[in-house]
Specification:
Elements: H1 4-8, E1 12-24, E2 34-36, E3 40-47, E4 52-56, E5 62-67, E6 71-77, E7 80-83, H2 86-97, H3 100-107, E8 112-122, E9 125-134, E10 137-144, E11 150-159, E12 163-177, E13 180-190, E14 193-205, H4 221-229, E15 236-241, E16 244-248, E17 253-258, E18 263-266, H5 272-286, E19 291-295, H6 301-304, H7 307-312, E20 316-320, H8 324-332, H9 341-345, E21 350-354, E22 357-362, E23 365-371, E24 381-385, E25 390-393, H10 411-423, E26 429-432, E27 438-439, H11 440-454
Parallel strand pairs: 18-19, 19-20, 20-21, 25-26
Antiparallel strand pairs: 1-2, 1-3, 1-14, 3-4, 4-5, 5-6, 6-7, 8-9, 9-10, 10-11, 11-12, 12-13, 13-14, 15-16, 16-17, 17-18, 22-23, 23-24, 24-25, 26-27
Length: 455
């Protein structure tokens, strides 16, 4: 690859090409393990001196900036920026350490240890397989005999949603770049499934970087600074009606409802950190009644990343019947490398299934759950509170905080409208799994405007 000295001299690397993502746990059907997306242009820079990274859109605008010191954000478009929390910055640091331009230096450093060397074969070619311990992760490094180039890294690392996650990073199509051989094709596999393919048409090193592109927009600087230094995920409660609260997180939200004898929560997104903060806000707003139920709207992993925290507290998970396998998988993943609260508790999780509809009632409070298939997920539950005239939905319609211009209206917005009108529900407020609160009138206005544009 050009020798350790040449690799060590790489201060930054810019790669331009395409990225194809297949998101695990995001299929429209519960039978689909992956949501396979199209390959898109990708312009990516890593500055190892900070470290930090920059992703530019095809127009040259900043799509994402992550700085291990200052914090980071993602440009969600139309004026909306998504600041990154401290835990996400840690995950980026881990990713940068595995960049093939720097991995060998770390693998041969003082904080790593060679655990063994063996012979192996990869795609019919002989390799040396070097086992390297770094931190609490053991890497199998496949080095091709003929060219002494790294073909694959194989390891299991702790993941905040999937626990002990087996991963592979595969490298090929090595070419010379300023005296160093670097791969122009990189692939990532998780649980044996290919989840990312990077094909580079241009790779350059040690460029003069535009510092202005690494700046955080002024209007989110305070928020980014707070999240960078916080060890929690902020959840801001808003009382929508007596005993009914919208818990607005950093891009993903929950709802909790105070019944006479218990509390019901809708959605446990992201991870344990957000679930713990949501539970803390529940205690502050409605007290110490037991949380009896957690309703999850669909099977996608970003909406279920925090369900294990509730299960550890004995909460019953309610989900649509087609989600059963996915939910049990989330609850049964091993978390031995970094034990979470469910692993530590030893509690046996409880799951209840909804086929078509279910009503949960206690005194004067009623919550209705209805199965609403959509293009986003076939196994959707929407949650309706008739007395409060509000509905909770995830991914059918959303407007992110700070977004300007006409809202994006996809086919699932019409699905939401149709189910409300067909059921005869009276809705004044949409409580979304993503983004800000939306009034029903605002939603209908956006839907009608979208119709007029397509006619």
């Amino acid at each position: 690859m050009g020798g350790l000295e040449a690799l060590g001299a790489i201060d930054n690397i810019t790669r331009i090409g395409t990225r194809q993502i297949s998101s695990f746990g995001h299929g429209g059907l519960t039978s689909e393990a992956l949501y396979v997306q199209l390959a898109r242009p990708y312009n990516h820079t890593v500055d190892f001196t900070v470290p930090r990274e920059l992703v530019l859109s095809d127009t040259g605008a900043v799509a994402q900036m992550v700085d291990s010191v200052k914090g980071g954000y993602r440009n969600a478009g139309r004026g909306a920026f998504a600041p990154m929390e401290a835990a996400r910055l840690v995950r980026y640091r881990t990713k940068w350490e595995k960049d093939i331009a720097k991995f060998l230096i770390a693998a041969l450093g003082e904080e790593s240890s060679v655990e063994g060397v063996s012979d192996g074969v990869l795609e019919g070619r002989p390799h040396r397989v070097v086992s390297v311990g770094m931190g609490n992760v053991l890497y199998k490094v496949y080095v091709e005999d003929s060219g002494h180039l790294v073909s694959k890294l194989e390891f299991t690392e702790p993941h905040y949603r999937f626990g002990d996650l087996p991963k592979e990073l595969i490298f090929s199509d090595y070419r010379g770049v300023d005296g160093v051989k670097l791969p122009f094709l990189e692939m990532r596999a998780q649980m044996g499934l290919t989840t990312q393919v990077l094909e580079w048409s241009e790779v350059t090193i040690n460029n003069e970087l535009q510092e202005d592109l690494f700046q955080i927009p002024e209007r989110i600087q305070e928020r980014v600074s707070f999240l960078t230094q916080s060890d929690t995920m902020p959840v801001e409660p808003t009382e929508l009606a007596e005993g009914v609260y919208f818990g607005e997180g950093k891009g993903m939200n929950s709802l909790w409802v105070d019944f006479e004898e218990f509390i019901l929560v809708v959605e446990a997104p992201n991870d344990e950190v957000q679930s713990l903060e949501t539970i803390r806000q529940i205690r502050k707003t409605v007290g110490d009644k037991p949380i009896r139920y957690l309703v999850t709207t669909h099977h996608h992993e970003d909406h279920n990343g925090g369900i294990r925290t509730y299960a550890a507290n004995g909460v019953t998970i309610i989900t649509q019947a087609m989600n059963e396998t996915w939910i049990w998988d989330m609850l049964n993943y091993p978390f031995t490398l970094k034990p979470d609260r469910l692993t530590q508790s030893g509690v046996e999780p409880k799951v209840e299934l909804v086929e078509d509809r279910r009503t949960i009632k206690d005194g004067s409070r009623t919550v209705e759950l209805l199965h609403v298939p959509s293009t986003h997920a076939e196994s959707f539950l929407v949650v309706y509170l008739p007395r409060e005239q509000l509905i909770f939905e995830s991914d059918l319609f959303s407007i992110l905080q700070g977004q300007t211009g006409p809202p994006r209206v996809g086919p699932d917005a019409k699905v939401l409208y149709d189910v409300v009108t067909q059921e005869g529900w009276r809705v004044n407020q949409i409580v979304p799994g993503h983004g800000r609160l939306v009034s029903w009138d605002e939603f209908v206005t956006a839907l009608n405007a979208s119709k007029s544009q397509t006619e």
